[in-house]
Specification:
Elements (H helix, E strand, L loop, with lengths): L7 H29 L3 E11 L5 E10 L5 E10 L6
Antiparallel strand pairs: 1-2, 2-3
Length: 86
């Protein structure tokens, strides 16, 4: 029966190489997340009004700019009615 022997120096070199490769891979992954970036809010306006019957109307307008320069305008409108009286 033949048993292969790994010398101490050879084993530590393999472990060092493995650590270096792992460190390089995680660094590259982290850098890619940092380079992507997030959308930047250029402007945001909110307004709300209450009608005589108690209904609340809310409007929210948002303009965002992505890292590649694309501008997106979003408008959200909500209408909330008061609870019915028994």
């Amino acid at each position: 029966m033949q048993v292969s022997k790994i010398e101490n120096g050879e084993w530590s070199n393999k472990m060092k190489n493995c650590k270096v490769i792992f460190l390089a891979a995680t660094s590259a992954l982290a850098l890619s997340f940092l380079m992507v970036g997030c959308d930047r809010t250029v402007s945001k306006t909110e307004s709300s009004s209450v009608s005589s019957d108690g209904t609340v109307k809310s409007k929210e307008k948002t303009v965002t700019q992505s890292p590649d320069g694309t501008v997106t305008k979003t408008e959200e409108t909500k209408k909330t009615s008061p609870p019915a009286k028994p």
